[in-house]
Design a protein that fits this description.
The complex is a heterodimer.
Chain A (H helix, E strand, L loop, with lengths): L2 E4 L3 E3 L5 E8 L8 E6 L6 E7 L4 E4 L8 E5 L4 E6 L8 E11 L2 E8 L3 E5 L2
Chain B lengths: L3 E4 L2 E4 L5 E7 L12 E6 L6 E5 L3 E2 L7 E6 L2 E6 L8 E7 L5 E2 L3 E5 L1
Parallel strand pairs in B: 2-11
Antiparallel strand pairs in B: 1-3, 3-8, 4-5, 4-9, 5-6, 7-8, 9-10, 9-11
Classes of the chains: A mainly beta, B mainly beta.
Chain lengths: 122, 111
């Protein structure tokens, strides 16, 4: 089955570090870009950035550049989203997504993980 | 950033009737390759978002043909020909011409 399986919910304190994961299966991990989307409580969707697993080429949204790190370990088909110092405002659901491809056409974000809930509270 | 503006933000619908959501971008989404990079997503209650339409009018795999997308330049529309109860949720448009940005979302609910 083609899927993205994300790591479980996290409860952290402000200032803590955190890395959440997204394991891809059922397709060639290195052939598709993987991105991350944030959804704050009761809010809409925000684009964070994207990485190409084959060469780790990474593009960040300016809103998140410098605050998070996106990486992959292609040996285990896993993408990561990492914080070195969490803030209360980082509390949200984080989705990993696959950028689809249809021939030469970018075909939307065609595969979504189930989301990882991050709670940040002192 | 390209700003995406959806309307309406709330849409009560009657099953079996058509529905339409508008999405407007702050600049043209036409790419040099001739495509418009505008997608539509549906987030059903308690679920992750799912892709409905990519590049304005291409239905994603498994999406019923009652969903259709149209538009060009800065104005785009998602239409549901006959709403079903399972179509409730929040609909988002998203541009992928530059760093991706989403619309605010349109909440569709049954009257």
């Amino acid at each position: 089955e083609v899927q993205l399986v994300q790591s479980g919910a996290e409860v952290k304190k402000p200032g803590d570090s955190l890395r959440i994961s997204c394991v891809a299966s059922g397709y060639s991990f290195t052939s598709y870009w993987i991105g991350w989307v944030r959804q704050m409580p009761g809010q809409g969707l925000e684009w964070m950035g994207i990485i190409y697993p084959a060469d780790s080429d990474t593009k960040y949204s300016p809103s998140f550049q410098g605050h998070v790190t996106i990486s992959v370990d292609k040996s285990i088909n896993t993408a990561y989203l990492q914080w070195s110092s969490l803030q209360a405002s980082d509390a949200a659901i984080y989705y990993c997504v696959r950028r689809g491809q249809s021939g030469r056409l970018v075909a939307g974000l065609d595969l979504w993980g189930h989301g990882t809930l991050v709670t940040v509270s002192s | 950033d390209i700003v995406m503006t959806q309307s309406p933000l709330s849409l009560p619908v009657t099953p079996g009737e058509p529905a339409s959501i508008s999405c407007r971008s702050s600049q043209s989404l036409l790419h040099s390759d001739g495509s418009h990079y505008l997608d539509w997503y549906l987030q059903k209650p308690g679920q992750s978002p799912q892709l409905l339409i990519y590049s304005v009018s291409n239905r994603a795999s498994g999406v019923p043909d009652r969903f259709s997308g149209s538009g060009s330049g800065t104005d785009f529309t998602l239409k549901i020909s006959r709403v079903e109860a399972e179509d409730v949720g929040v609909y988002f448009c998203m541009q992928a011409l530059q760093t991706r940005t989403f619309g605010q979302g349109t909440r569709v609910e049954i009257k």
